[in-house]
Amino acid sequence: MMAQNHVPFAMSCWWLYATMTNLPIEVQGTMTAAIGGMMPDLDHPESALGRRMLLVSVPISSLCGHRGVTHSLLAVVVLLWLLVAVTTLPAYQHLAWLITPLIIGYLSHILGDSLTPSGVPLLWPRKGNYSFNLFKTRSWQETVCVGIFTIGTVLIFGVWERAFADFLATVPKFPRGVAY
């Protein structure tokens, strides 16, 4: 799956999760999920995120190759452990809200890549890739599937209405009858 599809897929997965768990749908969580949705491709220096973080991407690519450990459940566990460890420090406790959307976005990437024929090494270091073989990377079918999922999530789960209502809840209320 390509970045232009990983991003809306990650956002939609976050919206679906937020709706099902009654979390607010806010820009911060949505953008964090989008970033999480691109993180596994740090193992590829030519990826959208890899090009922006070459100092991280090149060494990971050299050690692991593309669609290696970063596309596995082991990477998810390590990332979760690091995030929890950092956000338990007093100076970073205010960032704990990042954990859930980032992990949802990361998992969405792995799910998205598992829909392609190449699949993902879900149980790395165990050999073998897991694939649903639904569409090829860079195909029109990839874009259509992600589009249907995104539009379906927005329409069926009322994401637009919930996001607008959550936004309005953050707008300060001014008392009536007071001249400003």
Number of strands: 0
Global shape: globular
Quaternary structure type: single chain
Query: Which spans of ≥5 residues are poorly predicted at pLDDT below 50?
Result: none
* Order of helix and strand elements from N to C terminus: HHHHHHH
Percent of residues in beta strands? under 5%
Cα-atom radius of gyration:
18 Å
Distance between the termini: 52 Å
Helix count, DSSP H or I runs of 4 or more residues = 7
Rounded mean pLDDT score = 92
Structural class category = mainly alpha
Give the count of structural domains. Answer: 1
Describe the main β-sheet briefly.
none
Helix content: 55-70%
Task: Describe the protein in words.
It is a single chain. With 180 residues, the protein is an all-alpha fold. It has one domain. It has seven helices and no strands. It has helices at 3-20, 27-36, 54-64, 73-87, 99-114, 140-156, 159-170. The model has no long low-confidence stretch (mean pLDDT 92).
Would you kindly provide a brief summary of this structure?
The chain is mainly α and 180 residues long. The chain has seven helices and no strands.
Give the tags.
180 residues; mainly alpha
Write the layout of secondary structure elements.
Elements: H1 3-20, H2 27-36, H3 54-64, H4 73-87, H5 99-114, H6 140-156, H7 159-170
